[in-house]
Amino acid sequence: MDPASNKLRILFCVIAGAVLAIAAGSCVASGSANTSSGSDAAGRSSAAVRAPRPRPDEVTGEVTLTQSGSDTAPDASQVVVWLTPLGATTIAQSGSEKPRYRLVQHNKRFEPSLLVVPVGSVVDFPNQDPWFHNVFSLYRGKRFDLGLYQAGAQRSVHFDRIGPSYLFCNIHPEMTGVVLAVDSKLFSISDKAGRYAIDGVAPGKYTMHVWYENAKPESLANLQRSVVVDDTTRTLPTVSVPVVKQIQKEHKNKYGQDYDPDAMNPDY
Hints:
Layout: H1 3-49, E1 59-66, E2 80-85, E3 100-102, E4 104-106, E5 109-111, E6 114-118, E7 121-126, E8 135-137, E9 144-145, E10 154-159, E11 163-169, E12 176-182, E13 186-189, E14 195-198, E15 204-211, H2 217-222, E16 225-229, E17 239-242
Parallel strand pairs: 1-17, 3-7, 6-12
Antiparallel strand pairs: 1-14, 2-13, 2-15, 4-5, 7-10, 8-9, 8-11, 11-12, 15-16
């Protein structure tokens, strides 16, 4: 074999070896990446199915709304449940300063439409609309009239009376809301499925209270019951609230008169 042919064979072997080495390296890297990706996916999958652990001081429960007959309403939200301690049971104090609450006026609505506060709380009513508002409440609960105030302004109310205060705006009749003052810090509002959770509940005996806007006061009073919370019992009894069909009536303004039709103008 001549020297030229020998050199070509040597060069061919070198190139072939390099190609094989590169291919082998790619396979190893690909396998490594696939293993890592699988591991990450498994980690994400296990994390996704891992339910959050309930807090040790949390109690949960469920409410249903029963309509005429035995029908159950599909939406069981906006039911308020709260606990008041009995006997030697005490509620832990979170601090000397009472928290302030906010009920915003936005897009000609009260947000949230239902606000629950411990009695004695102060609620701020900021106006986040580009027009004037006049919040008032003259029916049951805390009676007040905040007067006319402009966009960006804020006024406050001290809710020192237990029970619901029904909110209206003297300019916009479509604005309605409720502030419910309760004699406890242990309260919650149910979701659409009727579920709720109350934090900060120490072991002990409590009275369980229920409130719903479309229920008669006597029906709600009959739903009160004593409950015991301990380390093994953190679920409250299911409550069925009988609902009364409400007939929507046009309410009057704070002067007891019909609303001015010009108030429906979106620029005002």
